[in-house]
Design brief:
Blueprint lengths: L1 E2 L2 E4 L2 E2 L4 E3 L2 E4 L3 E3 L2 E3 L2 E4 L3 E3 L3 E3 L2 E4 L3 E3 L3 E3 L2 E4 L3 E3 L3 E3 L2 E4 L3 E3 L3 E3 L2 E4 L3 E2 L3 E4 L2 E4 L3 E3 L1 E4 L4 E2 L2 E2 L5 E3 L3 E9 L2 E3 L3 E8 L4 E2 L3 E9 L4 E2 L4 E2 L9 H5 L2
Parallel strand pairs: 1-4, 2-5, 3-6, 4-7, 5-8, 6-9, 7-10, 8-11, 9-12, 10-13, 11-14, 12-15, 13-16, 14-17, 15-18, 16-19, 17-20, 18-21, 19-22, 20-23, 21-24, 22-25, 23-28, 24-29, 25-29, 28-30, 29-31, 30-32, 31-33, 32-34, 33-35
Antiparallel strand pairs: 26-27
Length: about 240
Amino acid sequence: MRISGAGRLSAGKINEELHTSGSARINGDFECNGFNCSGSFRGAGNLTVHGDVRSSGSFRLAGSVHGDGHMRSSGSTRVDGEISIKGTFGSSGSLRVGGGVSAVHGIKFSGSSNVKGDLLTRRSIEITGSTAIYGNINGNNIYIGTGRVFGGRRVFKHPVKVYGNIIARKEVKLVGTLVESDVKGRIVIIGRNTEILGNVYYVDNIEINEKSILNHDPIQISAEELDIPRNMKNNI
């Protein structure tokens, strides 16, 4: 199904992909076999997609997104609920999520992001750009990057702020990041302009840049103590 002008759909289900390049509105919960938005989309309920979700326009949803495939967003995206994807999730535009983001095969943010819940994946999480995460971050490897630099000067001391815990099954590397809670990983690398207000736990190795701030001495733990909380496991 294609909407290239102005269109309005009722709540329901279609057994095909939905393509919108104009102005589209859905009045309630909607289910389809693929979703592609390059215009303006407004949804009043939940969106369930049996396939990939792609958005390069303006996307606003009052409910949650649940997808069986991958999700890519390069425009302006706001989801008042949660985003739950069985593939990978990537955002290179403006992203606002009222709940958490879970994607089984990986998460990557490279734009401006604000997530009120947790970030969860079985694979890797990569974050650059200006980002605020109010929940916990859990993944196999977690890389939080360098922030924006103009003319050799950093615009923000902490381009990324994490208010919950960061837990990596393998490696966690933080640069230009403020973490208000704990950091835990098998290998932990604390890069420049990073500040950790909670505790830092590591299993095998830790590296600490001289231009970072740790409020407490790092604590070495066993691999068993790196166990992921059960409520986080259940969501991925």
